[in-house]
Each structure stands twice: as structure tokens, then as C-alpha cells.
Predict the structure.
Amino acid sequence: MESLIEFLKTKMMVEAVDYDVNFARVSGRINHPLETTIIDIEDYFKNTGYTPIFTRNKGFDVIKIGIINTVEDKPKIALNIILFMATILTTLWAGSNFGGGNPLTHIKDLLMGIPFSFSLMAILTGHELGHYFVSRREGMTTSLPYFIPMPNFIGTFGAMIRMKSIVPNRRALLRVGMAGPIVGFLIALPITIVGIALSRFVVMPATGYYIRLGDSLLFSLIVKAIHPMIPPGMDLFLHPMAFAGWIGFLVTAMNLIPIGQLDGGHVAYSLLFEHRKKLYIPLAAALIGFGLLWPGWLVWGLLAFLMARRDPLVKNGLTPLTKKEIIWGLIPFLLLLLTFTPRPIVITR
């Protein structure tokens, strides 16, 4: 370890060296040109058994030196397949109930759930495979998607993948973080358009309360473009494909909130790096405000902030993004504005 620190003193102006259980931290100023020096340091460390992690803290360049175990890429896909098939079943069940079927008494009614189930599964699968293929392209070890079946009103709690290896740099984190939401959105958009075109008008109840879905900006624009005139006393009853698209938009927005381990948090980390936490106070205030419209935003915001304590482990956090990459990195936040639904559930009298 000491020889490695002595080497680093030739590559940077060292201000301090600290030790903890797992790492040694060398703080100072890395010699310019920055990117070339980082490459030299990484090359030197290749055969030492130690991994340098480049970050920044309180205005200083920091190199953490530690041993990071490599993960063998041996996927066990049986569980992934079982969860995928189970989620198809639970979303078929939910879709059948949404369409007026009752699989408990008529098992064939499960077929009524196909438009909803297949649409929603296409959106979720596209989202997770976007993450998967881009992360593999960046040289990372990543699991296949794990779907979460759940007997709720949509039949699932979504899906996830596990990044098992360190993220090489901010550029890779940006690409992986934005790939899932963009792919999922591109699948959800035509499904939503077709679904809204197939939706029909129904007479609103004359008395009592009923539940309707709130609109995001984009969903509202699509409805107005396809159904510019809603007859008085009527409302649009969503086709199952439109309902799946609505969920896809909502999931996209929830994932793109720029906090912690959410996709938006990863994008914000890659764009802002050490300044990302400046977003936390205004984001907390915004989520509390929207929580007054829908309590779900309070719950989701709390979970997101709990996850914010764990940043992704990025090997090279110092090399900045190019201007082109920064522009691309703004696209997910445009999608957030288009798909965010302030009040997803509306109780109307």
C-alpha cells in the first residue's frame, strides 16, 4: 500500500492521506492533463490487486485505494424465468379484472387480460433490457431482469436488475441510467396512442363518488389530439392498452426523479457529480407539495431519499462529460416533465 501511495505522489500534489478499514484515501490535486494522468494511474494499478477510485470531496481530488472483488459472470436464469412467467400470470389476472372478467369463476377470462398484460410487460421488459444491454456494452456485470409479481390492481411491483460490478466512469453511468427510461418510454408511447384511440366514452355516475386517473402533460395532449371533444356528462374509459401506457408514463416519471438509486439519480450523479446534493432540498419541498395532492408522492419521496445515502460506486468520477453528453443527459428530465402526473388518482363526485 505504501509503495502505491508513493507512486501517487508523483502523479498528484498530495494534501492528506487517511486510512479506514477498507480504503486508503489520498487527497490533493491530480496533475494535468487530468484524463491522461488518470489513465497512467489506472495502468499502474492493473497488476497490483488494488483498485483506484477517483472522486472529489470538498474541492479536492480524492483517490481511494482498496481491494474490490470481481464478480464472476455466471447468470442463473431459472429464477428470472419463473418470476417473468409469474408476473405475466398476475398481470393477466389484473387485466382481466380491469376488463370486467372474473378468472376465479371462469378461467378463460384470463384471456381478457392479454391487451393489458402484454402491453405492460412490453414496457417493463423494454425498460429493464435497456439498462441490461447498455451496461453490458460498457463492460459491466449485470443480472437479467427480476420481475416482481404481485396480486394488486396492476399485477406487479415492476422489475429490477442488479449491477454486480463497479461502474467504469460517469459516461457509462449516464448511458446506463438513461437507457431504461428512454426505451420504456419509446415502447409506452405507441401503446398509449393505440390504447387511447380504442378507448370509449361512458356516462359518468349521476350520484356518489368515482375514481378517475389523473393525466400527465403528454397523456393529456394525446387524449386531446385523438378525442378533441368529450361529450357533456361523459368521460373517457381507458382501453387496457391505454391503462398500461398510463402506468408506463407514471413509472417513467417515478424512476426519473433525480435522487439516489433511481434512474434519475444516476443521471443527476453523472451530470452534477459533487453538486448533485444541492437538488435535495428543492426536490424534498416539491415532493411534499405534490404529496398534498397525492400521498403516494410522499411515500415514494421518502423511499428515494432513504436510497440517496447510497451513491453508485463509480471508478472514475473525475473525468467530466462532454457537452454532447450533457445535452443527451437532459433528455430524461424532459421525459420527466412530460410524464409526471401530479395527482395520479382523482376522486370525483
